[in-house]
Sequence to fold (369 residues):
Amino acid sequence: MLKTQNALLFILLVFLSKTNFGQENSLPNDCVNAIVLCGNGKLSSNAQGFGTQELFPGSNSCFSDENNSLWLKIDIVKSGTLGFTLKPSSTDIMVDYDFFIFGPNASCNDLGQAIRCSTTNPDAAGLTSNHTGMNDTATETSEGPGPDGDSFVKSLDVSVGDSYYIVIDRPHGDGGFELEWTGTATQGGMPFPTGVEANNIPDQHKSTTTGSYTFLLNDFKREISTDPNVDIRFFENETDAIDNANPLPETISLIAESKTIYARVTSPNGCFEIINFKLSVAFEFDKFFTPNGDGINDFWPIENVSSFLLNNSYISIFDRYGKLVKQLRATSLGWDGTINGNPLPEADYWFHATLKDGKEVKGHFALKR
Ligand SMILES: [Ca+2]
Ligand SMILES: [Ca+2]
Ligand SMILES: [Ca+2]
Ligand SMILES: [Ca+2]
Fold:
């Protein structure tokens, strides 16, 4: 479970190829989809590009617009100075991150002028590091573009109840970054609300004679959180869960496979936690058959199991004394409970079989009449 209260917030920006525009609309490269920072620890996002262009000459004194952007929103619960150091995951001086801060209490349709920004290019400015951010020693509130500045501007003076939008933008280079929060507001705990409570749930495993099972994801919601005010959605990967993009349907059908499901638990204030759990379904042989000629369950295995067995392999069936009574091709109809045409008595019988992956399975089943 991702719950951290330390001053390090890792954000990994993953720039993937576009899939479709409908999906991009929900990505946090636009103000309205800003990721709310709470107790969130590691974040990753598929955001790439800039969605709607929301920076323009006049919106900031750093002379830049959006290139590859990620919008974050912070709600302040502790007063003090607040800064950060943005550390690109690549130390290459050509990797250039910029940022812009709007607020306090700006709205997406009326952002106003950025109150902090830095568009210094570390290579053009002759810097030795590509880190950028805000600290308590810098005095100017904006710098850039290009060779102007040293990539650090004055930290914010934040008060309880304030909210700010932070636009992280990457005009040059590739790769993700992490944010390390600094300033007096971070002393003794982060100045952001704590994340929503979400319970981990155990992995769920089913074995069925058809090898398939349909899980109802809604059934897990109560176990994850009993708070009726939280919104719980399920996703195929952590990145989609963070972006709140491409939620899974309410049912997941698996056939002899396992899948990790990511649940995003979001509180009304936008804080979220992401937990994950595994769903798995295994094939198992039928436990009985009734070879009385009534057309119901007359052959063992009852289900068609050929797709789970190694091609051209055999199922060997033994009686309780270990005597081989039948060898079935994996593709055959099954055993009718006879040996040389003579019906065998009600009893437990044993089998050996080889699954698709080469795994040997042994077990037993009941012949009932
Ligand atoms: Ca945008
Ligand atoms: Ca920069
Ligand atoms: Ca500076
Ligand atoms: Ca029968």
Summary: Residues 99 and 247 are 30 Å apart (CA to CA). Residues 29-30, 50-52, 54, 66, 69 surround calcium ion (ligand 1) (CB under 6 Å). The domain at 204-283 is CATH 2.60.40 (Immunoglobulin-like). The chain has three helices and 26 strands.
